[in-house]
Amino acid sequence: MALKLEPGARLVVATHNPGKARELAQILENRFQLVAAGELGLPEPDETEQTFVGNALLKARAAAEASGLIALADDSGLSVAALEGQPGVYSARWAGPGRDFTVAMRKVEERLEEVESRDLAAWFTSALAVAWPGGPAVVVEGRVDGTLTFPPRGDRGFGYDPIFIPEGHAETFGEMDPAAKDRMSHRARAFEKLKAALL
Ligand code: IMP
Question: Which of 53, 78, 172 to mutate to test the pocket of ligand 1 (most atoms within 8 A of CB)?
Fold first, then answer.
């Protein structure tokens, strides 16, 4: 089986978030018919792996097996050098059941105070996986490096954006024009690699 995606192919996006499915469709230049896992009533697997690549693969494989369609999944998060890469794959979970990223960002600041580190280096990672039902899978990773800043600044982004200043810039992802963020983000970089591999 050739690991190429034909234009117009029907892909299931292993996200239960319709916003994410739309964002993925835009990045894939509307080349494919994207169906959200939620629309097909597919179960959401637990993200039990310790790496972004592992969780993206787990989600893509589960959706491909359950739907019989080629599946695309992502996993992403913030890693802080002085915290040995935390929150990492636990980025969403640090925000608690209320998904409150004010709480998650404060937790990052508190943990940095606990370890008494002045090292504010951090990076966002996005892993993207495509899996064929009963067959192979392709996974890629994109990363953007930067520095943390406290208190949080800007309300134009989401998640940890207000505390992250990408390398070579002065504004946080939360302050930056979203289109500018989209051009340099970990997700954009992962998509470039995925397109190179599959299109
Ligand atoms: P996922 O949905 O399991 O991939 O969770 C990723 C989590 O990482 C999100 O809930 C965000 O908190 C965080 N994250 C990933 N990408 C970004 C980003 O571009 N900006 C801010 N936070 C992000």
Answer: 78
Distance between CA atoms of residues 182 and 15, nearest Å: 19
Q: How far is the CA of 125 from the centre of ligand 1 (A)?
A: 9
Is 176 inside a domain boundary? yes
Active site residue 75: yes
**Do 176 and 113 contact (CB within 8 A), yes or no?**
no
- Whether 4 is covered by a domain: the verdict is no
Q: Exposed, middle or buried by CB within 10 Å (0-12, 13-18, 19+), for 176?
A: buried
- Tell me the residue range of the domain where 126 lies: 10-198
Report the pLDDT value the prediction gives residue 19, as an integer from 0 to 100: 67
Say yes or no: CB of residue 75 within 6 Å of ligand 1. Answer: yes
pLDDT in tens, 55-84: 999 999 999 999 999 999 999 999 999 999
Q: Which of 14-28, 86-100, 120-134, 173-187 has the lowest mean pLDDT?
A: 14-28
